[in-house]
Design a protein that fits this description.
The protein is α/β, with parallel strands linked by helices. The chain is built from seven helices and 18 strands.
């Protein structure tokens, strides 16, 4: 699939919190924009070829604008995308946008929805709140931040706070003074769904304390790759951490990727992605984040043992789909269906 892009006009840039701006994008001719669902994101395409994803925070009922929130991440922690947005994207500029695309879907049939946001993680959740408010659904948001100055979209959220639908947790930089996740997530009410987004530490803690929730009720989205986890400490007689790690890296080295229905087969070396190998051999597959976070390159496969490394695919999708930008193959051959 070839990526579809559109030029959008930057109508407004707003300071939302410390190091967080929102950018309002509209059609240059004043027309309606493609529809989207809560949780969707846009791609910003830079002239140097970089692509970055930003969630839409504005209500999905508003087809006249897209609003994204951007956190300025300074080197060496960032990859330069947010700094480029802050420095180059100004009112009056036309930017190249791809999408919208959604890998973080809202279940509107839930009896109740609980949201937990950390900092800029409020961006995709805010759109969901607006949708649930529109349809009269029950929800509550827990917003975690260091201080009031770090709360993005505070005026919108204060309206929900007045109705008891938003609870702020300002910890002053000490997580022990913040939200009690163990307590809040201990006993999920029947029919409740959980959605969360934020920094890796918060994400990891929420996943830990919600691990007992019913299957299909926990939903999350990363804004960056999660921190790598340490291999488990081996028992007596088992390989050491180093040996286990080397073994994991060796999985999939030297495998073939074949295209179903053709005689085409290509070697995928350990330092190249499946996606890059397919593209360089003439196959039109959309490439965007390159980090397994946006789902743009989602591809069906019909044979092979996949080592899924993405942050997007649901468990039920992994039996049939792969994100070839990051995932590998544990078997000697992977057969993909590009028809």
């Amino acid at each position: 699939m070839v990526k579809q892009v559109m030029p959008l006009f930057v109508r407004r840039v707003t300071y939302e919190a410390e190091d967080i701006n929102s950018y309002e994008l509209v059609d240059p001719d004043g027309g309606e924009l493609p529809e989207f669902t809560p949780g969707a994101h846009l791609d910003i395409n830079f002239r140097d070829g970089r692509v970055r994803q930003y969630s839409i925070s504005s209500p999905s009922s508003d087809r006249m604008r897209y609003r994204i929130g951007v956190l300025k991440v300074r080197p060496p922690n960032g990859r330069g995308g947010s700094m480029a947005v802050f420095e180059r994207v100004h009112v009056g500029r036309v930017v190249s946008i791809g999408g919208p695309r959604n890998n973080f879907l809202l279940d509107e049939t839930a009896k109740k929805s609980m949201f937990i946001a950390g900092g800029i993680g409020i961006t995709p959740l805010l759109c969901m709140l607006h949708r649930l408010e529109d349809i009269g659904a029950d929800f509550v948001l827990h917003y975690c931040a260091k201080a009031k100055k770090n709360v993005a979209f505070s005026e919108e959220l204060e309206k929900f706070e007045a109705d008891g639908k938003v609870i702020f947790h300002l910890d002053g930089g000490d997580p022990k003074r913040g939200i009690n996740l163990k307590k809040e997530l201990a006993d999920p009410e029947e029919g409740t769904h959980l959605y969360f987004c934020g920094p890796p530490g918060l994400m990891g803690a929420i996943k830990k304390f919600s691990s007992h929730w019913p299957s299909g009720t926990v939903h999350y989205e990363y804004f960056g790759a999660p921190p790598p986890s340490e291999p488990p400490v081996p028992k007596a007689g088992q390989p050491t951490k180093v040996e286990e790690h080397i073994g994991d890296l060796a999985i999939g080295v030297g495998f073939q990727v074949a295209v179903a229905g053709t005689d085409e087969s290509y070697e995928v070396p350990p330092d190249r992605s499946i996606l890059d190998v397919l593209i360089e051999n003439g196959h039109n597959i959309e490439k965007s984040c390159g980090a397994g976070m946006c789902g743009a390159c989602k591809t069906r496969y019909v044979e092979g043992v996949v080592d899924h490394k993405d942050l997007v695919l649901r468990d039920e999708e992994k039996a049939n789909y792969i994100l070839p930008c990051v995932s590998r193959c544990k078997s000697e051959k992977l057969v993909v269906d590009l028809s």
